[in-house]
Design a protein that fits this description.
Elements lengths: L1 H16 L8 H9 L10 E4 L4 E3 L7 E7 L6 H16 L6 E7 L7 H7 L8 E4 L2 H10 L4 E4 L10 E4 L3 E4 L5 E5 L5 H8 L9
Parallel strand pairs: 3-4, 4-5
Antiparallel strand pairs: 1-2, 1-5, 3-8, 6-7, 8-9
The structure holds nickel (II) ion.
């Protein structure tokens, strides 16, 4: 009877918590990434900043630069997004075969409308992606991204922050993982790594 009540409670609570709690700790996620323990990347089904549904297969044939963050992030996200934008500018027209993606880890506040005001500040071709809490958690898990909402201190006007790992993932034209740039990577360093791959075509 107690067990049944427990299951019932779980069934009632599970939908409310779906996608909200991190699946793994930051240390576990780092370990997986640093030592290539598991595949990185994979399918996602999200909505872009114009309201259009987008999946990973929309970007086949292009290199993808994938970054997870949130628009209210005070410093790390804007700095990295600026570096991505600058790298694309430095690559010039060759960068047309590179698709930069910004996937929010704060879908509650980062609606398509809100992303539409944010992403063009960094690059005209940067695509912002959002979705349900579950869809975002699934995409983040696939990319081995850790994120967790941090509850605001009382009296802070309800403003909350989101802890998150901030790697910039480089994926090949078939969506396979090539590697990541750590937070704070310069635009020049990204150009150095990306440029030799621009001449390659999809097999
Ligand atoms: Ni951030």
């Amino acid at each position: 009877m107690i067990l049944r009540a427990g299951i019932l409670l779980w069934l009632m609570l599970a939908p409310a918590f779906a996608g909200k709690a991190p699946t793994r700790s930051p240390a576990e996620v780092m370990d997986v990434l640093m030592w290539n323990r598991e595949p990185v990347g994979g399918p996602f089904e999200l909505t872009d900043h114009t309201g259009k549904p987008r999946t990973n297969s929309d970007f086949r044939g292009k290199l993808m630069l994938v970054y997870f963050g949130f628009t209210y992030c005070p410093d790390v996200c804007p700095t990295d997004l600026q570096a991505i934008g600058l790298a694309l500018d430095k690559l010039g027209t060759a960068a047309d075969s590179v698709q930069p993606l910004f996937i929010t880890v704060d879908p509650e506040r980062d609606t398509p409308q809100h992303l539409a005001e944010y992403v063009p500040m960094f690059h005209p071709r940067l695509i912002g992606l959002t979705g349900s809490a579950e869809a975002i958690r699934k995409a983040a898990d696939a990319y081995k991204v850790y994120y967790a909402k941090v509850d605001p201190p009382k009296g802070d006007g309800g403003y909350y922050t989101v802890d998150h790992t901030a790697f910039i993932y480089l994926m090949d034209r078939e969506g396979n993982y090539l590697g990541f740039f750590p937070p704070g990577t310069s635009a020049d360093r990204m150009v150095e790594i990306i440029r030799p791959r621009l001449g390659e075509t999809a097999r």
